[in-house]
Amino acid sequence: MKQIGEATTPLEEALEAAVAKAAMFRGKSLRYAPVHGGISNSNFRIQLDSNPLEYFVKIPGIGTEMFIDRRAAFDASRKAAAAGLGPRVYEDLYDDGIEIHDFIQDRRACTNGDLAREDTRLAAIGAYRKMHAIEPLTLEKSVFDMIDEHADQVSELKGWLPPDYAWLNHQYILARSALEASGMDLVPCFNDPMPGNFMIGNDGSIMLIDYEYASMNDRCYDLGIWFGEMFFTPDQEVELIEAYFAEVRPEIVSRVTVHKALADVKWALWSFVQQQVSALDFDYFKYGQWKLMRLRSIMHSPDWAIHLSRV
Questions:
Q1: Which fold has domain 108-310?
Q2: Taking a C-beta distance cutoff of 8 angstroms, is the pair 190, 222 a contact?
Q3: What is the C-alpha to C-alpha distance for residues 152 and 154, in angstroms, rounded to an integer?
Q4: CATH 3.90.1200.10 domain extents, the chain
Q5: Which candidate, 141, 137, 133, places its Cα nearest to that of 75?
Q6: End-to-end CA distance of the chain
Q7: Segment holding 207, helix H or strand E
Q8: Mutual orientation of helices 250-277 and 165-182 as an angle, nearest 10°?
Q9: What is the C-alpha to C-alpha distance for residues 107 and 198, in angstroms, rounded to an integer?
Q10: Cα-flanking dihedrals φ and ψ of residue 33, to 5°?
């Protein structure tokens, strides 16, 4: 770990400048080190010589202001923390859009392998039920809002789009029409189920971190994007739907499946925006291609029309 004054990269310099402004760190001896794994921002772990607690500091990535409302992210983080679902949040750098919260020392980030286990999956679905029941968030942003936002941004940035984009966009319009006709079920949604955002304790319980994409959205989107991210089998998806809703009906399965495809539309477009603006060393083009392949596997299925008809 480095001491203040030992920065050798622009990101470390940004971190040092940020913590110098935070009242909670002022006049204290501290060390820091990067926390790897994110694909939007630069994250650091802070240790104070005078305090056994450790802190997590998130420096917003270049261009993320295009699709992340930092005040809304703080709102979601605070409300999740109040419900015991996320770590404590500090407001020292609130006006700069820089997050500080407790570093969760007694938990570790999940992997896809962890969430392949039934007990961990069920603990995670319990965390989703808790998330969806917290106080309403200030930001209402559905998957439709996200997709439209990214589509406009890709166009403005002259980013890449797949050759079959017209067909994919038509399927998006069909899905949107079907879901809007049935009505949106808006609840506080997490919207970002990378396995590293699920923090597991020794007791198997799950906490959620990173609420920058959280918004009032359809609860079945939150389940659909998670199912897709984890590559759950159809049987596992049915198990989780039953655990969440206490029943399994065809229209629920279809609604989750349609949202699973829409989540990949959103994140594919997001990746093509990031490809144009991000300074992080990450292959956004490859990430977007992976999302496109998965959404096509759903939309090209003979069951796609059936799912649209019964949402």
A1: Aminoglycoside 3'-phosphotransferase; Chain: A, domain 2 (3.90.1200)
A2: yes
A3: 6
A4: 108-310
A5: 137
A6: 52
A7: strand 206-208
A8: 130
A9: 10
A10: -150, 150
For domain 2-107, say whether CATH 2.40.170.20 is its number.
no
Contact 42, 11 (CB under 8 A): yes
Query: Is the CB of residue 5 less than 8 Å from the CB of residue 83?
Result: no
Q: Quote the tokens at residue 147.
A: 């997709």
Place of tokens 């969440």: 244
In the chain, CATH 3.30.200.20 covers 2-107
Q: Do 125 and 240 touch, CB atoms closer than 8 A?
A: yes
Per-residue pLDDT of the chain (311 residues; tens, 9 = 90+): 898 899 999 889 999 999 999 999 988 899 999 998 777 789 999 999 878 889 999 999 888 889 899 999 999 999 999 999 999 999 999 888 899 999 998 999 999 999 999 999 999 999 999 999 999 999 999 999 999 999 999 999 999 999 999 999 999 999 999 999 999 999 999 999 999 999 999 999 999 999 999 999 999 999 999 999 999 999 999 999 999 999 999 999 999 999 999 999 999 999 999 999 998 889 999 999 999 999 999 999 999 999 999 99
| Cα separation, 131 vs 210, whole angstroms | 13
Helix residue ranges, H only, the chain: 10-21, 70-82, 112-115, 118-131, 143-157, 165-182, 219-230, 234-245, 250-277, 284-299, 304-310
